[in-house]
Amino acid sequence: MKSRISEKFRTLFGKDGEFFASAGRINLIGEHTDYNGGYVFPGAIDKGMMSEIMLNGTDKVCAYALDLDEYVEFGLREEDAPSQSWARYIFGVCREIIKKGGKVGGFNTVFAGDVPLGAGMSSSAALESTFAFALNELFNLGIGKFDLARIGQATEHNYCGVKCGIMDQFASIFGKKGSLIRLDCKTLEYKYYPFDPEGYRLVLLDSVVKHELASSAYNRRRESCERAVAAIRKNHPEVEFLRDAGKEWLDEVKTDISEEDYKRAEYVIEEVQRVIDVCDALEKGDYETVGRKMYETHDGMSRLYEVSCEELDFLNDIARKCGVTGSRVMGGGFGGCTINLVKEELYDRFIAEARAAFKERFGHEPKVYDVVISDGARKLE
Ligand code: GLA
Fold this sequence. Notes:
Blueprint: H1 2-13, E1 18-27, E2 39-40, E3 42-55, E4 60-65, E5 70-75, H2 85-99, E6 107-113, H3 123-138, H4 145-159, H5 167-174, E7 179-184, E8 190-194, E9 200-210, H6 214-235, H7 247-252, H8 259-283, H9 287-304, H10 310-322, E10 326-329, E11 335-343, H11 344-362, E12 367-370, E13 378-380
Parallel strand pairs: 4-6
Antiparallel strand pairs: 1-3, 1-13, 2-7, 3-6, 4-5, 7-8, 9-11, 9-12, 10-11
Bound molecules: alpha-D-galactopyranose (GLA).
Alpha-D-galactopyranose is lined by residues 31-32, 34-35, 122, 164-165, 167-168, 331-332.
């Protein structure tokens, strides 16, 4: 990828720039908990975005997306927003830095990536983090790592229409080879957990479906949670996020909120606890419990949070039938992947069966990605 980028960069700009990269992410457990102040448990992966960048001394960004063969130029004022969605991520990052008082000028860039789009591995966070990290270095801005992640998150909120939490950008910036990271999204305390489950493999099965309107459905889930918090706060003003409430407090307001909001909040409260349970189990090397919790998450995401879909439920069922240790829909949902914790000796049979059964039902095979936990945002030498 590096040499393809480099070649194009020279052709377009006649010089060499500097290389930066960042990563997509997986999440072992803790889904839709981040914007509820709960825990998440992600890690960066070996698929990401890479860009070559050179400052150009103007106030214009000249950007070429190698995978799409598209070139766009844009200025850095609010009214200069480009229309191409990929360019809006880069523009948004620049704008968010500027809003924080950072001095960003123009630059030339060519970038490419290998995070499958729409698969729930957060290609967009990888793109935002690459540029946030790179611009921080190149313009000597001195922005701390959490703020870099927040810049990516604000880009999603203000330029891409997704009111996401901090998980994806956090993983993409803080990711470390071989480790998952448990993040408390309320206090922002985090802890690295070396993850090398002997005798097991983590594998993603990508349904290759992405259902429309995922971002508005995502934002609606968030609103449900906020309504539930508002109701609980009437009795317990100290509650800031769903994470601060137990099931009993939610039950006190059961008749004050809609059935749908209740289900959403119920899922979140249970999911926050599951992350804690999984961390405890991991410390004991108890992968059976980890796997069981993953299945519980799938059920919650499917029945209560309603972010699964036919294809993902189907993949989850195959995993259960094959005796896979843990399996669940990963990321925001509405398509994308399941993440599976599989015993080595079962791996081949499971993959073969999943491919065949899925193809028979939906007409195409799922894609299979072995998870390699890798470093996050960095400068390449
Ligand atoms: C998307 C969002 C994250 C998080 C997950 C669900 O990936 O970007 O902030 O909410 O969905 O866990």
